[in-house]
Amino acid sequence: xxxxxxxxxxxxxxxxxxxxxxxxxxxxxxxxxLNSLHRxxxxxHLTKAPWGDMAEAAVESGDPIEAIRRIKAExxxxxxxxxxxTLAETFLAAGVVDSVRLVVMPIAIGAxxxxxxxGQDPNMLTLHSATVYDQGLVELVYEIRASNG
Length: 149
Known about the structure:
alpha/beta
């Protein structure tokens, strides 16, 4: 997987921008890679998306499906959507997602929002791989099966 574009919803962007492009993240092993990605923020309200002292993220405020199709056509590598469940649900429902990677941490918070849209056909996913990392982290990679309808 060669990720070159990171897509974020506005709320996730705000959380990421407060940490990743700052000195607080300098000891994080993924900070240089994450900060070097082309960044796109989907928002109906933001007009700018600063990223510390680095290049600003592009802001998409129109139809998210049209925008992600255009971004996919223009991008040489993979596109990752971090967090941003509403945006991810929109992309899943529209059939523009090729695979889903979930990193599972062994911490329970007791409640929360599901990863997939309500009513989503559970047969649309095929487990492609599962990888175990340090501290009990597990990465699950699901391929999206084409709809028969």
